[in-house]
Amino acid sequence: MSDFKFKKSLGQNFLQDNNVIHKIVDSANLDKDTLLIEIGPGGGAITRYTVPLCGHALLYEADSRLEENLNELLKENNNYSILIGDFLKSNLKEDIVKYSYSKIYVVANLPYYITTPIIMKFIDNDILPDKMVVMVQKEVASRLSASIGSRDYGSLTVFLNYYYDIKKLFDVSRNCFMPKPNVDSAVVCFELKKEREKVLDISLFKKLVRDSFSYKRKTIRNNLKSYDLKIVESVLLKHGFDLGVRAEALSLEVFVEMANALVLK
Ligand code: SAM
After folding, report:
1. To pair with 265 at 20 to 30 A between CA atoms, which of 24, 35, 154, 255?
2. Can you give the pTM of this predicted structure?
3. Residues with Cβ within 6 A of ligand 1?
């Protein structure tokens, strides 16, 4: 690995700090009933510790140059598969049915240029990992774990909080990576909610949330012009708001109620 040429286009910033690596592994709490998914094992910094702890590991890596080194690093283990190629193009459903497990965990230092598409791929495929401990860009971590009314609270926050309790675990300095990226990072933990509000039409809910935040400074009246505003207003009034409110002031529950009311109209 010493003469490895890092590819910026693949977001290759490899974790070097043992303390951070162990904090990530410990937070995941893996066991032998767990199917582990890692997107971008890279040089195996995290993988070498997680694979021995899980039932089976699916390691998706876009860069075929890394396969040999990963196999060498993991040679004491026979419970892993390296899938070379673009995770976003993989057939997740087909890949996971081959294994028996009682839960799915994702533990990864994600390639930052596709953080949201990676997370959305699980949700869009209806594969909801029980837990995800992932390193993301610090700004993304703030968005994911933002509270109502804060600057970072947006459609991604609301939509993902429908499925997950999301907590930022700790910040990670850019100095912990090789090569050093020009952003800082943070590790975020997603825990699948045991109970969720019932959403009648998930694609409508997703679109409503996205549209509500489409212009952050605009009110719900302006952002949701193309919806039945009478119905939207009736839900808002129940919660003490009117159409002049901005999306950032509305909780997940209000969005769920608005989406369901629009289905039932
Ligand atoms: N896990 C390693 C670590 O922590 O040192 C590497 C993390 S590095 C931030 C991101 C990794 O994701 C790289 O190994 C890169 O090659 C891989 N990668 C980038 N795009 C990918 C994609 N579309 N599918 C699968 N892996 C990808």
Report:
1. 154
2. 0.95
3. 10-15, 39-43, 45-46, 60-63, 86-88, 109, 111, 114
